[in-house]
Structure prediction request, 329 residues.
Amino acid sequence: MKKITAIVLCILMVCGVFAGCGANNTNTTNTSTGKIKIVTTIFPIYDWVKEIVGDNENVELTMLLDKGVDLHSFQPTADDIVKISTCDMFVYVGGESDEWVEDALKESTNKNQISVNLLNTLGSSVKEEEVKEGMEAEHEEEGEHEHDEEPEYDEHVWLSLKNAKVLCEKISAELCKLDAANKEAYQSNTTEYTAKLDSLDKEYEAAVKNAGVKTVLFGDRFPFRYLVDDYGLDYYAAFVGCSAESEASFETIIFLAKKTDELGLKAICQIESSDGKIAKTIKDNTKSKNQEILTLDSLQSTTGEQAKSGKTYLSAMQSNLEVLKNALK
Prediction:
């Protein structure tokens, strides 16, 4: 039920805008600009679409979460709802963080709109959130989910290169339906891009095969479940990937410090948005106190400015590979 109030307010705010818009849209391109409008939520999806579209100037691509706001705390504005409701194609993650999307899509004025839900696309490949030994359980507010028996799924599907390939092929197929005139170009771009994903995937496999240890330890949230499962790595962490917690208990700190000693780990990891306090506290409670603190990029808070400056999904995942190599020494 989170974010529902914000969505209702946004929808009420844009109702006046929609009342003045024609609901009958039978064209494959947006009638106001003559261009195909594609809206995505987070950076990885934005970058995939950008690669698939290539140099087609008839596509207008928008990333909603372009200010560095974390996926799990994003609150759509009235302007965001308008962008979604008038676009030709909307691509989003799905899951609990995107509960607001269903209501937003109901307001669509484009009756030919295509929407792509990443979790739905992956189906049974989506993993349930896992609480590992020593991990801090998330504290729910009183009454929250008390009637909810549905499992909570790990939303960070983009951190698997194997998933990325499947998802890019799905996005490409839907784009080909939307813009059949450019089908061959989209298919060619997708083939070229997924080959790069395959190549990087093989680099990860080789790195893990040659690694000195097969476990990573995070003094932080852990959004890399899909990545470690792809390559047979084990992990320990302070919190699950979608956790809103920011303070680890004494028991969690001591468990992770002892696990670091037990496994002889030379690194403690964190994600890009971390303040580093938990990782440092774990390090200070180990015997040697000489572990390196390494940062992996979860790609869920990448800004539009970073994208304009040349950051790509592949460059970020390549950087993550170099960090992982150090963590597994």
About this structure: The CA atoms of residues 25 and 31 lie 8 Å apart.
